[in-house]
Design goal:
By secondary structure, the protein is α+β, with helices and mostly antiparallel strands. It has eleven helices and nine strands. It folds into two domains: 162 residues, Regulatory protein AraC (Jelly Rolls); 108 residues, Homeodomain-like (Arc Repressor Mutant, subunit A, Orthogonal Bundle).
Length: 292
């Protein structure tokens, strides 16, 4: 059974899984975000993919392209089998690989606002074949496996980005009465993250019960409303921590909407795996980032 990804510090340089979820499979990935990049490809079936602030219908031959720190969840249906491939890869490691590509930006797709694409038949076969080769190398752990996996990953990213601008965009956003209410809530949260937001304030804003908003928000996004608020705030905090203006951690917590430095530190560490101070230090010290 699929599991929630572990903390970033435990993530391998490249992680690959190919799994079939049977009809009736009763699971929703918990909403999460991670620093690594990710390609999520549906071989057959359909998945509702919540990405950042929208929910998309992702079906046969569609690929979800996720950059770093994007809140997301993959929500499986109950009425059909879904087979999918998930490839995630360490951001800093991939940037080193990208430095070897002198005539193409292999990370362009990850910096785009497009998150879902529909792949032509020839690209679909290539994705599946490459994922199988990656799985073989990673599972066998032979000498040079990481080097071969890195070469396979670079080949995959070159092909995806070479075709990215020409691929059919698959931006089919789900629209129902319930999902529209979720969209309104998301817009409210993203516009007011630095103010005091609670379930009570959301309930009053939209004149709906706390229990109803929790239920439909979790169903469509994989997050509770407060989990989503915290993710939006942490994303803002990361932006400020990495900014050229060296604000104090206390000031950053306040600007991101946290009511105390203690609360800021606790939530930040829960989501990222490290404290705000350690996160900033890690991004300024290349040696700290290297894996062993």
């Amino acid at each position: 059974m699929p599991k929630i990804p572990p903390d970033e510090k435990e993530m391998p340089l490249i992680s690959v899984s190919r799994q079939a979820m049977p009809k009736g499979y009763n699971s929703t990935f918990k909403g999460h975000r991670h620093e690594s990049y990710e390609l999520f490809y549906v071989i057959h079936g359909r998945v509702n993919a919540f990405i950042n602030n929208k929910t998309y219908l992702v079906s046969d031959g569609c690929m979800v392209i996720l950059g770093s720190h994007i809140p997301h969840a993959h929500i499986y249906p109950h009425d059909m089998e879904v087979e999918r491939i998930c490839i995630s890869f360490d951001r800093e490691f991939t940037r080193k690989i990208a430095g070897c590509a002198v005539d193409i930006d292999i990370l362009e797709a990850f910096h785009s606002t497009i998150n879902v694409i529909s792949c032509p038949v020839n690209l679909r076969k290539f994705i599946e074949d490459t994922a199988d080769k990656l799985l073989t190398e990673i599972e066998n752990e032979n000498q040079g496996a990481i080097s071969i996996a890195a070469a396979l990953l670079m080949h995959l990213l070159v092909i995806v980005n070479r075709n990215f601008k020409d691929l059919e965009l698959k931006q089919q956003v789900l629209n129902t009465l319930a999902s529209s209410r979720v969209t309104e809530t998301i817009e409210y949260i993203r516009s007011n993250y630095n103010n005091d937001i609670s379930l009570d304030s959301i309930s009053r804003k939209f004149n709906i019960s706390r229990y109803y908003i929790i239920r439909i928000f979790k169903k469509h996004t994989g997050f509770t409303p407060i989990e989503y608020v915290n993710n939006v705030r942490v994303l803002k905090a990361i932006e400020l921590l990495m900014g050229a203006e060296r604000k104090t951690v206390s000031d950053i917590g306040e600007l991101a909407g946290f009511n105390s430095i203690t609360h800021f530190g606790r939530v930040f560490k829960k989501i990222t795996g490290v404290s705000p101070q350690k996160y900033r230090a890690a991004k300024k010290t290349p040696a700290f980032l290297q894996r062993t």
